[in-house]
Amino acid sequence: MIARAAAFLLLLYGLGFALFSVTLAAPAEADAPKTQAIVVITGGPGRIERGIELMAKGKAKRMLIAGADPSVTKDDLVRRIGGKRKLFRCCVDLGSESVDTRSNAEEARRWLTKHGYTSLRLVTSDWHMRRAEYEFRHALDKKIVIVPDAVRTEPGLMTLFAEYNKYLLRRLSVGLDI
């Protein structure tokens, strides 16, 4: 009986991983609603660039780059990305208080409250979006509108496996109130 239960759980785990791997988040549709803010979570290629592209298109008023290294400046990012100095000066904030996805959501909550924003476009990698969106929905007021906007990547098997396990463990810890 225990072996059957273990086999069943292992089967569920494997099917869950397969489903997780083939249903990665996608970029938001072109007609997705405009939001007051964009929150970009650092840690992967193309994320900041995607946020700047959305700001340049007028998809939001202001952008937070959550989890930025404290030594990074706006001028560093302008040099790295190229151009857009005016956009960075007026409308981009660097958040360096967070170190993981959970604290990114907490940092974003404080920033959104400070500015009085009630909607945000969340930008992160496709493989990271499910957990990031879960953390943000858990940390933010339920009235805040979140529009997920994933950056397409080509994640490896180990990246997907690690992220799936992090997602499951976080859901379990929230469910058990740990």
TrEMBL record:
Signal peptide: 1-30
Keyword Signal: yes
Superkingdom per UniProt: Bacteria
GO biological process: Gram-negative-bacterium-type cell wall biogenesis; peptidoglycan metabolic process
Statement: the UniProt record of this protein carries the keyword Signal: yes
Residue ranges of domain DUF218 in the record: 36-146
CDD domains reported in the protein's UniProt record: YdcF-like (cd06259)
InterPro entries linked to this entry: Cell_Envelope_Assoc, DUF218, Rossmann-like_a/b/a_fold
Xref: Pfam families: DUF218
The protein's name in its UniProt record: YdcF family protein
Naturally occurring in which organism (per UniProt): Sphingomonas rhizophila
